[in-house]
Amino acid sequence: MKKTLIALCLFCFAGTSLNAQLKLNEKNIKEVVKAMTLEEKAKMVIGCSSSAFTGYGNSTLYVPGSAASTAMIERLGILPSVLADGPAGLRISPRREGTEQTYFCTAFPIGTALASSWNTELVENVGKSIGNEVLEYGVDVLLAPGQNLHRDPLCGRNFEYYSEDPYISGKIAAAYVRGVQSQGVGTSVKHFAVNNAETNRKDNDSRLSQRALRELYLKGFEISIKESKPWTVMTAYNAINGQQSMESRELLTDILRNEWGYEGYVMCDWAYAGLRNTQKEIWAGNDLLTPGSDQQYNEVLEAIKNGSLSETDLNNSVERILRIVVKSPRFHGYKYSDKPDLQAHAKVARQAATECIVLLENKDNTLPLSGNGKNVGLFGISSYDFIAGGTGSGSVNKAYTINLLDGLKSYGYNVNNKLSEFYTEQVTKSIEALIAKNPIYAYLGRTSLSEVSISDKLIEESASQDDFAVITLGRSNGEGLDRHAFDDYLLTGIEKNMLSKVSTAFHKAGKKVIVILNISGATEVEPLKGLADAIVCCWLPGQEGGNAVMDVLSGKENPSGKLTMSIPITYFDTNTYDNFPYDYTGPAAMGKYAVTPKPERKNVHYINYDEGIYVGYRYYHTKNVKLSYPFGYGLSYTSFQYSNPTVKATKDGFTATITVKNTGKVAGKEVVQLYVTAPDGGLDKPACELKSFGKTKLLQPGQSETLTFNVDAYTLASFNEAASQWETAAGDYKIYFAANIEDVRGSGAYTQKKAQAWKVNNVLKKQ
Ligand code: BGC
Prior knowledge:
alpha/beta; Rossmann fold; Immunoglobulin-like; seven-stranded mixed beta sheet; six-stranded mixed beta sheet; 23 helices; globular; binds beta-D-glucopyranose
């Protein structure tokens, strides 16, 4: 008896000491999960917000301004991993109490701009710089990239996203993830999925066909997740066909994990306690309930106790989180410097911003500027208050923004003094007015300033003294609010007035007018065509914007960006406007557009995606709708000739090649887009779809390069709802090599000998 007691004590002691020694590492994750108490597991799936739930940590204690962290459980050697926004650069607090040191991050071009480069290498390089700042500021996972589709130009977060096309969205997102993760830190591909409007964003259901869901809204995620293996995925606020994204087992387990083989963890978008059903989220496969609260912690414990959540599901979530925790720099004790090389990254930001610029018009070679003189009439409030990025979690706390005034000066231009004094004063006044209205603007990213009226006298004086005019039109948007059709997509009265007066005065004096679009996304440009000699779209180009624009205006760099969305003539040329919660209070003149009476934005609880797969160019091009600029459009200072198109069948699809020659006088890069038209007889299809793209290196005049495009049979497939399968029909496919969707420069054909099909789960049905 005595012996047994001693043995038992020894066993217990050994057991405790063994457990006491059990510390998490890459190989013992399952064992650690087994050793965790229920309370510890609940902590793990709740995580720590930047304020709530401080009992288990507080992400701002690790990195001020971070968005959340995973929990720390010292007993088992589980260290926290810190999560911070966002897509255009790391977002943390730039200043900390008790120190003069600053913690600024580099503001890179917004997502839409990055995609306009059509250059995955460039995007990967930007990702590397962002990833390095993530690493050196002690953050483990960046809450980016955002890659939802531009379904309608008014979505307030389109600026964080890439395109109306899922193929380029997926490829750009994959490049971004590869770049960031090459630094040993993680990403969070977001917002999964069908997050295409900000109106009533936490209570809005995206209602769409399974085909549109699969082919368009999930496709980009499928590409980036399979190709780049992001450490985490963030679900969306919205529901999909009645299922909340973060509570949808069909989305997170059936599709994401079982079909696509995703192995990281899933976190939800910042859904505070009470918004969603905690146990359902874990059951669905949404592992981390960011930002986490005591209430959700108690709900997890209660759900396990009353059997509504199985401990296996909870264990799986904990295990998936730990698998990422062990990869995190903080777990490995990485000694971050808090001093990333911001100067080097600013150079990357400038170079990227330059290559993202899309030249829309250039009458009579107005640009590059050489020969236009040195005295500039600089108009538009945004010229003096250039917009680097959007607002909300996609904003970056940067040390500075180079505006166009700075850019022109550093290139040796003289900006009209009176104009510069007038606008500088207006900038100060407008900012003061904004802060008076809402003090938050004193320290948070703010939106663009509204255009101000300018006197005829100032315009006339400038037209007589200056050599040419530059006008900047600004638009910034952000999280939580959709754009408006009137006075946002469409130009405002003040803007139109300024444009027309400046244009008339300068043209009368035989001088040129250049318009810079410092905008977050597609905006009305049609009225500009008759007024401007050159139109340059630089998007929201990040902190080096003014320099990047001047690099292009001066001719130091040749623009090579192209649009990743179509620009309709008016907002009411979209096929989504009647199913998008735009502001319904526009001028009666808009009455020619049939708009069914709508509830106020706050009462919008669902959006019908009635257009199905006909989004963006899939609609405009198929239906021959006249646009201001088509998908893929962008000019260069040089010209390119396409020759020798070839298409050869491979074991699984085809390889196509085209030779591009620089036939102009200056060096330049060309983006080539590969569109495919499917044979008749299969499913109903758009006139053509983007299936590949490529960009040449910098070609000197006379130099050529042959670009190669590999397309497999799966990439050609469409989704057949009736059979729940992807199908590539047999028959002859037409292949187009194009400078933009309306400018085909070469073609070929590919014959798919046998039809192919890929069966998937019949899930997320429209109700
Ligand atoms: C946004 C996310 C962001 C998160 C953390 C949410 O409101 O939708 O995109 O990553 O906040 O800041």
